[in-house]
Predict the 3D structure of the following.
Amino acid sequence: MKRDIEYYLRREAFPHIWCAGCGNGIVLGAILRAIDDLQWDKNEIAMISGIGCSSRITGYVDFCTMNTTHGRALPFATGIKMANPEMKVIVVMGDGDCSAIGGNHFIHAARRNIDLTAIIVNNMIYGMTGGQYSPLTPSGRFGTTAPYGNIDQSFDLVKLATAAGASYVARGTVYHIRPLISLIKKAFNKKGFSVVEIISDCPISYGKMNRMQSAPEMLKWIRDSAVSSKVWENLSEEEKKDKYVIGEFLDVEKPEYTELYAMVVERAQKLEVGK
Amino acid sequence: MSKLKGDIELLQGNEACVRGALLAGVRFFAGYPITPSSEIAEGMARLLPRLGGKFLQMEDEIASMAAVIGASIAGLKSITATSGPGFTLKQENLGFAILNEIPCVIVDAQRGGPSTGLPTAPAQGDMMQARWGTHGDHSIIALAPSTVNEVLFLTIRAVNLSEKYRTPVILLLDEVIAHMREKVRLPLPEEVEIINRKKPTVSPEEYLPFKPEQDGVPPMANFGEGYRYHFTGLIHNQKGLPTTDPQEIDSLIRRINDKIQANIKDITFLENYSLDEARIALVAYGSVARAAEGAVKLAREKGLKVGLLKLLTVWPFPSEEVNRLAQQVDLIVVPEMNLGQMVLAVERAVGGKCKVVSYSRVDGELITPLEILEKVEEEIIKK
Amino acid sequence: MMKDRVEICLSGAGGQGLILAGIILAEAAGIYEGKEVVQTQSYGPEARGGASKSEVIISSEPIAYPKVIKADILLALTQTACDKYIKNLSRDGLLIVDSSLVPKIPVVPVQIYPFPITKIAQERLGTKLVINIISLGIIAGLTGVVSREALKEAVYHRVPSRVKEINDQALSLGFDLAQELKLRERMSQINTNKLK
């Protein structure tokens, strides 16, 4: 039975704090539609976030929710999942939250391959604090702390998650909504650490400093810069500049952490009896 | 003689901490290796899975604190162990646990500092870090054992207090106590008093996760039990949602402080040695309390009326008891392995009613009974 | 020699098993003989080498101060440890050194018992790994601070079963060395008396 997504919202928590034209609302809608498609019980869902605009998402949804400290959503979620492996644990982070202050937790959650879904809302900027550049701001772009252009290389979260040991890795955008919902659904269904990076827009902080004055302009840029992996393969390095690849990049089966730990418990208890 | 007699075992302080935690019902540990607390992690890694509990070695100290909070919210009694540098890293998430009233225990086996300091030498330099390490106005419970037996029982107490008052509790060991071995009689599980967090008595629809009962403590539903609600590091209303309402802010901040202060009698554990008729009192805690006890014996042999007030609860500070002591004695000497941290609380409690003197040692060595006696004699001559 | 409070300092380098020796000694006296005991240690950052010290206090009464103030017995298994801790030895204390590792025995007015522990361990047992247990045998044999039975129980309790036999031999060797020395002392005393 399809439900209206309002079923999953905390009415008393609204109005939300997001700016008009922000991609966070689209991400929220996509996550809730994916959950509705899967017919998950609200009581079984824990949604954990860190700090930043997108991390406010947990306040608005009617699950077991937690808006934790900056960068630390994944270890909080790890504790919940270990304590109660029955729970379906979703972690929502922004680009700065996940890849800067939380970068270490991100690679280690992937290394453990613990059954969490990490959704990274990548608007390429620290929006809440007013537009400072993040590790996912492309080189050459501008931020309030990169007034002469960003000289840092940016992380590729897809490659990072893959190399660190995740089971499922995908990238979508807030423009391509239907594919995004199906990527999120696949990630939710995956046993193991799954990652969906979502290219999103921040017209206020990022757009204004990077010659995109409005949300439609930013969405247009997102649409025109996104390239499917098939097309991406045939592009030259020059053509890849200022573009990004979307789709599914990794989908493998491997031992999951809470299941491995259940085996540790079994082993320890056998030894105890044998002793 | 072929077997260990009864349940008496020779245990290290850190081992006793593990055993105490397990007896108290702890079923989750997350930590990161650090001297001199690592034996706690090792013990937990070995024993927790045998009881169906969970052990996690996290990527860092911050993550360990986060995981402990997460596990507690999901219903497992949780503990972590660290030392000074790691305790510093845990402070932000400790604040999260205080604000969100999440039961958990943090063991800090103190070593010399600042910074990497003296990893294998004792100190008591984290007393103020335990009190004020995380930002913002808050209360904290901190216990400081001085024998291995006390480590066992105060660990159990720490877990119980954290559950009872929905608050993090800090167990302050030092390198001497952490690594020292003494005989301990392990209680049988049925001999151990276990306190569990209060559960809501109302339906999920009516449940307000931050609405206190008479004792100032709100009942706590665990995630996964049918109660859906929100935790946030932002100041929140009784529903757990962010608020900017001055009245709601004020009442939350005052309540999380008051719930500890209002129950200080229940939280405070002290011990007296030869305090009857004493004219001079030593106030000490942790391993230094052992030296102080030795000093009391030496002083009494010399006919000096010296006694000891041993603090097992260091925070909230037992001001009332110390104030009462100040009315009885002429002098209080506070020996500490720091440059004088708890002496500040003693002075504040004494309020000028008697002379208060600090005796410090910060060279990585335990204070000796003789040094304390000499300090006492020096003060007597001054008079 | 049993006083109310006996302070024992086992010193040497990391890797010589001194902390285990301290635990065994404390367990023998505390658990198997029912006395009050405290065992503490101090060590440097190194897992191997460096200075290592394990202290045991045995008493008939509850022990307040947990550290050695003036050692009644000092075991030194390295020159560095011997030089460093000799000042903590009580005037009527007893110094036991591994003479194969401590070439320069300090000139101090205490009873000194040098044994080539490492050399003997290598020769008679084919391993240096048990010098800690041999040392415990020597200490107990010379001073009677714990009984042989209690020490044996404690060794059995703390060492893995696959090395039980070698540790058993090591303990016996320690007691034998102490016994030989006592006999020699007795003989020389008799001889001295005869000469008088």
Q: What stands out?
A: The mean pLDDT of chain C is 93.
